[in-house]
C-alpha cells in the first residue's frame, strides 16, 4: 500500500533516501567544484594577461630609452677614444641599466666606457651579432670586466656613417621582472630569449633554448627588438584545485544534508498533508451517478483532489495511501467532511431531496476509535433530511468480521447506507456479502471496461450481476465510458451508472452547469 504513495514511490526506505541524498551531494559537489575551478582559472588567466601587458610596456620603454641614449652617443664615434672616453664613461655611469658603452669603428671595438682605449675584433667579443643590422641583440656568458656574469648586449648601428656604431652591455639580472612577478605568486620562472640563447631566473648561466621548459604560459615579443621574454607559471595550480575541491565538498555535504532532511523530515513525516489541509490545497469534485431507468442524476460520488504547489495535482490513490501510512487519514477525512459541508448548502439546490451522496471511506478510518463520532459530527453539519449518505467501503475492510458486522448495523440504525466499492477486485469477500446487509454493489470499472463494442462480456461480470440479483442488492456500474457499455449494462438490469460517458468528476460550479443542461440520452432507450 505504501508503495502507491507519490513520495514514497521513490523513497521507500532510509537506504534509498541516503542513496538519493548522496547522489544529490555528489552532483552538487561536482557542479560547484567545477564552477569554482573554472572561475579561479579564468581569473588567473586574466591576471597573466595583465602581467604580460605590464612587462611588454616595461621592456619597450627600456629599449626605447636605450636607443635614444645611444643615438646621442653615436656622434662620439667620429672622434678618437682619448677625446671622448670621459664623456662615454659618464654616460654609462648615469645610466643604471648599462654596464658599459663601447664605440665601434669598422668592425673593431676601440673605446670602452669601462676600460678606455682598446682594440678588439667585434666578432671575437660577440660573434653572433650582425653589425649590418641597425639594431641587434645577443646574450654573452660574461664581459672582460665581469667574466662569469652573463649579460644582454645590444648593437646600434650609426645610421649616418657606415661602419660605425655603439655597442652596449646591459645590467640584466631580471630583478625588475621578478618585482612584477611578486604580484603573480604562481609564476615559477622567466626567461629572456635571444636567438637560441636564454637567461633565466632559474640559473646563473646562459642556457640553450632547447633546455627551457616546452610550454611557456606566456611569450612576450617586442616589435623592433629581436628579444623575447617567456613566463612560466601554473594555470591549474594545486592551490586552486584544493580550493575547488574544498568548496565542492562543503556544498556537496550541505546539499546532501538538505536533501536528506527534506525527504525524511518533511515528506515522510506527513507534514505535507497537514500543511496542505491548512493551506486549502485539498478540494472536492462530484461525479454524477445516473439512474438506469430514468437516465437522470440520482446523486453524486464525492472525490477528493490535492493540488500540491510543487508536485502539481496528486491523484487520490496516491495521497490516500500516503495519509494512511502516516496515520493522517482521520484528519484528512475530517477535512473532507468539512469541504462537503461547506458546499452542502449550495448542493441542496442542485441535487433534489433524497439525492445520494457517495463518500469514500479509507479502510483505516473505519476501524479508528473516533469513527462513529466523526460520522455523527459530519451528519450534524449537513442540512437535515436532504441527502441520503452512502459510505463506500472496499471489500478489504470487511475482513475484521465481528467489528464490521457491528459497525454496519450501527450505520444502518443511524440511517446511512453502505456500498461495496470496487466490487470484484478484492479477495475472498464473497462470503461476507451473505452475512452483512449491504445496500449497493459498485462494479469495478475493470469489468465494465471489458464490455467491448459488439462483443460478449467477461464471464466474471455475468457472474457478478447474477450474484447481485440473487442477493437482491442494488448495483452501480463504475467507469462507464461508451454508449455500448451503458446500453449493455442497462439491458442486464444494472440500477445505476457512473462514468465519463455521462460526466467526469466536476467542481460544484461545473456540476451546477451540467445539471442545468442534462441530456436525454435517447440513444440508450
Ligand atoms: P473510486 O472510489 O473507485 O472512484 C472512482 C474513480 O474512477 C475516480 O478516480 C473517478 O474519477 C474514476 N472514474 C470515474 N468514471 C470513470 C471513467 O469513465 N473512466 C475512468 N477511467 N475512470 C473513471 P479518482 O477520483 O482518481 O479516485 C481514485 C480513487 O481514490 C477512488 O476510487 C477512491 O478509492 C479514492 N478516493 C478518491 N477520493 C477519495 C476520498 O475523498 N476519500 C477516500 N478515502 N478515498 C478517495
Ligand atoms: Ca468510490
Ligand atoms: Ca470504485
UniProtKB/TrEMBL annotation:
<keyword id="KW-0472">Membrane</keyword>
<dbReference type="InterPro" id="IPR001633">
    <property type="entry name" value="EAL_dom"/>
</dbReference>
<keyword id="KW-0378">Hydrolase</keyword>
<keyword id="KW-1003">Cell membrane</keyword>
<feature type="domain" description="EAL">
    <location>
        <begin position="266"/>
        <end position="519"/>
    </location>
</feature>
<dbReference type="InterPro" id="IPR050706">
    <property type="entry name" value="Cyclic-di-GMP_PDE-like"/>
</dbReference>
<dbReference type="Pfam" id="PF12792">
    <property type="entry name" value="CSS-motif"/>
</dbReference>
<keyword id="KW-1133">Transmembrane helix</keyword>
<dbReference type="InterPro" id="IPR024744">
    <property type="entry name" value="CSS-motif_dom"/>
</dbReference>
<dbReference type="InterPro" id="IPR035919">
    <property type="entry name" value="EAL_sf"/>
</dbReference>
<keyword id="KW-0973">c-di-GMP</keyword>
<dbReference type="Pfam" id="PF00563">
    <property type="entry name" value="EAL"/>
</dbReference>
<keyword id="KW-0812">Transmembrane</keyword>
<protein>
    <recommendedName>
        <fullName>cyclic-guanylate-specific phosphodiesterase</fullName>
        <ecNumber>3.1.4.52</ecNumber>
    </recommendedName>
</protein>
Amino acid at each position: 500500500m505504501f508503495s502507491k504513495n507519490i513520495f514514497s514511490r521513490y523513497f521507500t526506505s532510509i537506504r534509498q533516501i541516503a542513496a538519493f541524498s548522496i547522489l544529490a551531494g555528489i552532483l552538487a559537489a561536482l557542479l560547484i567544484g567545477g564552477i569554482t575551478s573554472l572561475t579561479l582559472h579564468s581569473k588567473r588567466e586574466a591576471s597573466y594577461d595583465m602581467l604580460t601587458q605590464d612587462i611588454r610596456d616595461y621592456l619597450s620603454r627600456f629599449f626605447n630609452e636605450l636607443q635614444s641614449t645611444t643615438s646621442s652617443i653615436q656622434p662620439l664615434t667620429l672622434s678618437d677614444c682619448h677625446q671622448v672616453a670621459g664623456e662615454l664613461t659618464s654616460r654609462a655611469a648615469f645610466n643604471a641599466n648599462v654596464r658599459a658603452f663601447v664605440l665601434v669603428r669598422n668592425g673593431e671595438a676601440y673605446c670602452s666606457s669601462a676600460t678606455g682605449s682598446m682594440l678588439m675584433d667585434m666578432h671575437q667579443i660577440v660573434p653572433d651579432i650582425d653589425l649590418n643590422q641597425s639594431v641587434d641583440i645577443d646574450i654573452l656568458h660574461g664581459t672582460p670586466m665581469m667574466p662569469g656574469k652573463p649579460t644582454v648586449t645590444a648593437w646600434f648601428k650609426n645610421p649616418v656613417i657606415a661602419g660605425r656604431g655603439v655597442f652596449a652591455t646591459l645590467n640584466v639580472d631580471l630583478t625588475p621582472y621578478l618585482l612584477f612577478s611578486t604580484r603573480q605568486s604562481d609564476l615559477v620562472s622567466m626567461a629572456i630569449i635571444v636567438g637560441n640563447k636564454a637567461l633565466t631566473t632559474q640559473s646563473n648561466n646562459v642556457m640553450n633554448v632547447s633546455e627551457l621548459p616546452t610550454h611557456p604560459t606566456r611569450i612576450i615579443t617586442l616589435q623592433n627588438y629581436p628579444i623575447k621574454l617567456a613566463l612560466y607559471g601554473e594555470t591549474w595550480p594545486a592551490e586552486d584545485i584544493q580550493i575547488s575541491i574544498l568548496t565542492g565538498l562543503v556544498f556537496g555535504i550541505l546539499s546532501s544534508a538538505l536533501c536528506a532532511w527534506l525527504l525524511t523530515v518533511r515528506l515522510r513525516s506527513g507534514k505535507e498533508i497537514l500543511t496542505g489541509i491548512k493551506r486549502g490545497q485539498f478540494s472536492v469534485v462530484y461525479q454524477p451517478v445516473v439512474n438506469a431507468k430514468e437516465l437522470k442524476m440520482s446523486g453524486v460520488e464525492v472525490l477528493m483532489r490535492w493540488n500540491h504547489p510543487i508536485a502539481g495535482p496528486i491523484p487520490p490513490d496516491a495521497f490516500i495511501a500516503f495519509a494512511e501510512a502516516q496515520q493522517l487519514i482521520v484528519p484528512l477525512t475530517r477535512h473532507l467532511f468539512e469541504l462537503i459541508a461547506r458546499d452542502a448548502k449550495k448542493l441542496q439546490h442542485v441535487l433534489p431531496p433524497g439525492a445520494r451522496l457517495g463518500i469514500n471511506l479509507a479502510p483505516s478510518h473505519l476501524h479508528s476509535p473516533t469513527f462513529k463520532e466523526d460520522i455523527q459530527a459530519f451528519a450534524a453539519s449537513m442540512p437535515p433530511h436532504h441527502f441520503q449518505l452512502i459510505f463506500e467501503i472496499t471489500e478489504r475492510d470487511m475482513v475484521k468480521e465481528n467489528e464490521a458486522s457491528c459497525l454496519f448495523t450501527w450505520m444502518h440504525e443511524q440511517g446511512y447506507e453502505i456500498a461495496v466499492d470496487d466490487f470484484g477486485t478484492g479477495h475472498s469477500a464473497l462470503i461476507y456479502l451473505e452475512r452483512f446487509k449491504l445496500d449497493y454493489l459498485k462494479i469495478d470499472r475493470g469489468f465494465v471496461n471489458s464490455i467491448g463494442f459488439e462483443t460478449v462480456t467477461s464471464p466474471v461480470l455475468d457472474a457478478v450481476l447474477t450474484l447481485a440479483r440473487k442477493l437482491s442488492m442494488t448495483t452501480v456500474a463504475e467507469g462507464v465510458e461508451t454508449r455500448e457499455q451503458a446500453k449493455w449494462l442497462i439491458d442486464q438490469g444494472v440500477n445505476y451508472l457512473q462514468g465519463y460517458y455521462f460526466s467526469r468528476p466536476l467542481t460544484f460550479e461545473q456540476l451546477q452547469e451540467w445539471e442545468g443542461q442534462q441530456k436525454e440520452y435517447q440513444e440508450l432507450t
